[in-house]
Design brief:
Strand content: under 5%
Order of helices and strands: HHHHHHHHH
Helix content: over 70%
Largest sheet: none
Number of strands: 0
Number of helices: 9
Radius of gyration: 32 Å
Distance between the termini: 117 Å
Shape: rod-shaped
Number of domains: 1
Structural class: mainly alpha
C-alpha cells in the first residue's frame, strides 16, 4: 500500500503544471512582429480619426437640421408686410443653413428673380461644402484601411515563406506561425476599421442629404413667396 502511494506521489510531482495563458490587447498587437505592430498602430490611429470625424460631423449636421417649424411662416409674414429688416434679424437669430439661404434671398429682394435664385444656389453650394467638411477623409479611411490590412497580409506571408526557404523547406509550424499571425491579425484589423468608417460615412451622407433637401424645400417656398402677386 505504501509503495502504491509512493508511486502515485511521484507521478503527481512529475506531471507538468499547466498555466492558463491570457492574451492582453498589447500582446496581441505586438505578437505579429515589428511590421505587424506598425500596421496595427496605423490602423488604430485611423480608427480614432474616423471616430472623431464622424461624431464631430454628426453633431454639426444635427445642429444644422434644427429649425423652428414656424420660421418660414414668420418670414412670409414679414416680407409680405414689408418688414425686411425684421426678416433679416429672424434669419440671423435662427443661424442655420436654411436661415442663411433665406437671408441671402431677402438681401436680393428688388433684383430680378433669376438673380435671386442664382444667389440662393451659390449660397447653398457653400452650405453643402461646410456640411461635408472632412467627410471625404472618412471615405478615404473606409477604402484605405482594408488595403493597409492586406499589406500586412502580404508582409506576413512573405515572412512565413522566408522562414520556410531558410529552413530548406522543412520549417516547423512554430517558425511559420509568426508570419501567418501577422497576415491574419492585420487583415482583421483593417477590415474592422474599414467597415466602421464605411458605415459612418454613409450615415453622414444620408444625414447631409436630409439637410440639403430641407434647404431646397425652403428655397422653393421663398421663391414662391416672391412670385405671389401683390
Amino acid at each position: 500500500m505504501s509503495l502504491f502511494l509512493q508511486e502515485t506521489a511521484e507521478q503527481i510531482v512529475e506531471e507538468p503544471i499547466v498555466h492558463e495563458k491570457s492574451e492582453s490587447l498589447l500582446s496581441l498587437i505586438t505578437a505579429g512582429g515589428t511590421a505587424g505592430t506598425v500596421i496595427i498602430i496605423v490602423l488604430i490611429i485611423l480608427l480614432f480619426v474616423a471616430f472623431y470625424i464622424y461624431f464631430e460631423r454628426l453633431m454639426a449636421i444635427n445642429k444644422s437640421s434644427k429649425i423652428d417649424d414656424n420660421f418660414m411662416l414668420q418670414i412670409k409674414d414679414n416680407v409680405a408686410n414689408g418688414r425686411i429688416d425684421a426678416a433679416k434679424m429672424l434669419c440671423a437669430k435662427e443661424n442655420s443653413p436654411v436661415a442663411r439661404l433665406t437671408e441671402k434671398g431677402i438681401s436680393r429682394i428688388g433684383s430680378p428673380l433669376e438673380d435671386i435664385n442664382q444667389a440662393i444656389e451659390n449660397a447653398g453650394k457653400l452650405e453643402v461644402y461646410k456640411l461635408e467638411k472632412n467627410v471625404s477623409i472618412l471615405a478615404t479611411i473606409a477604402g484605405a484601411a482594408p488595403m493597409i490590412g492586406f499589406l500586412g497580409t502580404v508582409i506576413g506571408m512573405v515572412l512565413a515563406f522566408r522562414q520556410l526557404a531558410e529552413a530548406g523547406g522543412s520549417a516547423d509550424m512554430g517558425n511559420l506561425a509568426g508570419g501567418i499571425y501577422t497576415a491574419m491579425i492585420t487583415t482583421v484589423a483593417g477590415l474592422i476599421v474599414g467597415i466602421i468608417a464605411y458605415i459612418g460615412y454613409n450615415h453622414l451622407v444620408v444625414k447631409t442629404d436630409k439637410v440639403v433637401h430641407q434647404m431646397e424645400a425652403n428655397a422653393v417656398d421663398f421663391l414662391d413667396l416672391l412670385n405671389e402677386p401683390a
